[in-house]
């Protein structure tokens, strides 16, 4: 059974230390987030995680895309749609993917050697790689203020235009070495999202990608699970530790060829779970779906946790998976 993260990690900022870093700082070219990225990757690799992320350290999941996609901006930390949405002419996250892979390889040379997440229809047990993460078009659209070009009753048009913009970014991340593209769509469980439009948008993004696609959806999934199974993605990822009702999904469900990202560590608290607590969730997944269909991960991103708590949670998750193997 493989292990992964959902995406974000605590941001541990660093100050210029080496002579070259101090020179870069003086010249205004020092990247203060590089230390945070390296720290996130180092923790994930040292914890033993198979499929890591770059930590999403630069901005939150909304701002990082709203501040780069033409037609969008950020005002007082709130994403704003002010014009026609178009794809960015450059990648938003490819350089961080490449940097994260380089950092991971320095710690564990196995990272990036085998980029095939799936071996046939099963997970590649020897896999070590990185995921490219994009915030889903439905979540971006529903989180944004509409101040220009689009009327407020044209959310579907906004979602579709965002999908075309994010499709280009997904291609950039694939070229940068991502082994899977993860689409984060927390709004799908809120009851205010149009799931038909959301599915259309995800279809646009995934079309022509040659690597597997994961879709992460936060919250309670019981009432929308059948609809989520209709999305053309390879892995559905959800919260199961902090959302115990979601465990009902595991009973008598047909994944229809998909795999399940099983959230088995609660990201909403710094309390470190015991191996037994993590195992209880994972065992329910194995009993109902089979070990070959599960990848273990935290419920959601860990940005709001302390660095120590985030690392220890990942470590106990990995140790539990090994214990159960």
Notes on the protein architecture:
By secondary structure, the chain is an alpha/beta fold. The protein has a single domain (2-324), classed as TIM Barrel (Alpha-Beta Barrel), CATH 3.20.20. Helices cover 37% and strands 16% of the residues. The protein has ten helices and 13 strands. The protein has helices spanning 19-27, 33-47, 63-66, 94-107, 137-143, 155-175, 195-206, 225-228, 275-289, 307-324, and strands at residues 2-3, 51-52, 72-75, 78-81, 118-119, 122-123, 129-135, 145-146, 180-184, 213-217, 235-239, 259-265, 294-298. Strands 1-13-12-11-10-9-7-2 form an eight-stranded parallel sheet. Strands 3-4-8 form a three-stranded mixed sheet. The protein has a two-stranded antiparallel sheet with strand order 5-6. The longest helix has 21 residues, at 155-175. The radius of gyration is 19 Å and the shape is globular.
Helix-residue proportion: 25-40%
Backbone structural class: alpha/beta
What form results from the Cα inertia axes? globular
Name of the top-level CATH class? Alpha Beta
CA-based gyration radius: 19 Å
Largest sheet: 8 strands, parallel
Strand order of the largest sheet: 1-13-12-11-10-9-7-2
β-strand amount: 15-25%
State the domain count: 1
Instruction: Provide mean pLDDT, rounded.
Output: 93
CATH architecture group name? Alpha-Beta Barrel
Individual helix count: 10
Poorly predicted runs are: none
Give me the strand/helix succession.
EHHEHEEHEEEHEHEHEHEEHEH
In total, the number of strands is 13
* CATH topology call: TIM Barrel
Distance linking N and C termini: 7 Å
């Amino acid at each position: 059974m493989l292990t992964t993260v959902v995406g974000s990690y605590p941001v541990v900022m660093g100050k210029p230390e080496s002579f070259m870093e101090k020179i870069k700082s003086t010249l205004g070219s020092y990247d203060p987030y590089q230390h945070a990225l390296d720290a996130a990757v180092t923790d994930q690799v040292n914890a033993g995680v198979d499929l890591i992320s770059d930590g999403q350290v630069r901005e939150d999941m909304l701002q990082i895309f709203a501040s780069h996609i033409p037609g969008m901006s950020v005002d007082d930390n709130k994403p704003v749609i002010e014009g026609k949405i178009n794809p960015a002419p450059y990648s938003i996250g490819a350089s961080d993917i490449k940097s994260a892979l380089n950092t991971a390889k320095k710690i564990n040379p196995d990272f990036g050697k085998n980029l095939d997440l799936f071996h046939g229809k099963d997970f590649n047990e020897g896999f070590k790689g990185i995921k490219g993460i994009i915030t889903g078009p439905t979540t971006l659209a529903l989180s944004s203020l509409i101040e220009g070009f689009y009327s407020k009753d044209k959310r579907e048009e906004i979602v579709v235009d965002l999908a075309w913009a994010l499709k280009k970014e997904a291609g950039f991340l694939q070229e940068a070495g991502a082994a899977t593209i993860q689409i984060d769509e927390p709004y799908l469980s809120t009851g205010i999202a149009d799931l038909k439009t959301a599915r259309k948008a995800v279809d646009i993004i995934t079309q022509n990608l040659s690597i597997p696609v994961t879709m992460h959806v936060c919250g309670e999934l019981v009432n929308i699970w059948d609809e989520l199974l209709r999305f053309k993605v390879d892995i559905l990822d959800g919260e199961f530790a902090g959302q115990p009702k979601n465990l009902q999904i595991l009973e008598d469900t047909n994944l229809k060829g998909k795999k399940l990202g099983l959230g088995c560590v609660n990201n909403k608290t710094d309390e470190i779970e015991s191996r037994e607590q993590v195992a209880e969730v994972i065992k329910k997944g194995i009993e109902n779906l089979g070990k070959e269909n599960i990848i273990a991960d935290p419920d959601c991103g860990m940005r709001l946790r302390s660095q120590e708590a985030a690392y220890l949670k990942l470590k106990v998750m990995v140790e539990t998976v090994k214990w159960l193997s």
